[in-house]
Amino acid sequence: MIIVSDPTTAARQLADGHHFACPWDGCSGWLGPWGSAHTRPVGCYGGGVDVYTPKGARCRACERTQVLVPASTFPKRADSVETVLNAIAMATNGAGHRTIAARVGLPETTVRGWLRRARANAETIRANATIAMCALDRAADKIAPTGTQLGDMLEAVGRAAMAWNNQHPDQPEAIPRLELAALLTGGELLKRNPTRLIYWPPS
Ligand SMILES: [Zn+2]
Question: Per its UniProt record, what InterPro entries does this chain match (predicted)?
Fold first, then answer.
């Protein structure tokens, strides 16, 4: 799985054949196009549903396959990054899963599941985001504690995203902050036992 900010650009870069390096340890191959995965619906924040068809990729050296996942979605989740991060932000402000579920118009069990997983992963994601922030901005101020684990995680991810945008002022369009958060956390925010290092650098 490779998280990309702009699927259209990523598909073109994939066709170039020298943009995406194989993510497998010890393989120095390049990825090329490899069909598409099934079209998927993704619930948008505030209502409505988008669909997208993830591009497939295959390493020309080891022949392992990958899927390019847009940064606006979480792998294998039916709702957008924007929805999930807004739900987490509401939780840091003291809202419970029932209140949040009513606000985002989704089942309580869905929101409870996100919050449980986000809390379990919060320290790993916070640590990874802090490393990314320091790598991008060696003079970065220390991140002040917010009082909650989820709040500390969101703060670190936000600061890493800010540092990345500050380092790339020439970007014609800054990557939306929430998508950048997904890029920086490698799509692992809601994954069981996140282990992967932050996807780096975002492209
Ligand atoms: Zn490979």
Answer: WH-like_DNA-bd_sf
Q: How far, in Å, from the CA of 4 to the mean position of ligand 1?
A: 18
From ligand 1's centre to the CA of 30, what distance in Å?
7
Dist. CA 14 → ligand 1 center (Å): 14
Q: Compute, in angstroms, the gap from residue 57 CA to the centroid of ligand 1.
A: 11
Does residue 203 or residue 102 have the better pLDDT?
102
Encode pLDDT of 154-189 as tens digits: 899 888 888 877 887 766 455 666 667 766 666 778
**pLDDT more than 90, % of the chain:** 38
CA-to-CA distance for 163 and 147, rounded, in angstroms? 22
Task: For residue 146, give the 3-state DSSP assignment.
Answer: coil
Whether the CB-CB separation of 59 and 50 falls below 8 Å is answered with no
How many angstroms separate the alpha carbon of residue 156 from the centre of ligand 1?
Answer: 32
Which residues, 6 or more positions from 2, have their beta carbon under 8 angstroms from its beta carbon?
20, 23, 31, 57, 66, 67, 68, 69, 199
Q: In this predicted structure, which of 112-116, 126-130, 148-152, 191-195 has the lowest mean pLDDT?
A: 191-195
